[in-house]
Give the backbone structure.
Amino acid sequence: MISYPSRHCTVELQALPSRIGQVRRIVSAHLRYWHLDPLIDRAALGVTELLTNVHQHAQPDKMCTVELELLLDRLMVSVHDHDPRLPVVVDVGHADSLATCGRGLAMVAAVSESWGVRPDGESGKVVWFTLPTPMAAARASVARPLRRTTVAVEQPARQFAEVGQRVDLRRPEHAPARSAVVG
């Protein structure tokens, strides 16, 4: 079932690889419809990672709901599933550098403004992330005066291992907000 109210989109699906690609295309199309093209890549990556986690880890079934909600200054993306177990964040700094899994939530944290997880009743959870809308970013840059510098200092690129400290997601409160500068 897909619903398209003006500021809200809900997609119910079974998190199978073929369905994940379809939802990624639905998210992209809906963000284009909302004129939020700059958010498409980050939203599609975040949704893909969260749905892949449902596919790989959720029990007893792979049924879930993806919700997009356009708020005043941000896009809220959430995935609801029926598994009450909260995800475990892998410390990327201590992970095997050749591992092919375990970095999904670190990537969500890196591309989003904030993210978190919360229990959803007795039998499920919601994993969510937010992205600032281009209008919010424009307002923020107008509110801050531009600083001019005459010396350019090149900063080394950060690796995923520097996303943040280890978070215990078994607590009912939200995970701390993370920020990422893209561009």
Notes: The helical segments are 17-33, 40-57, 104-111, 134-143.
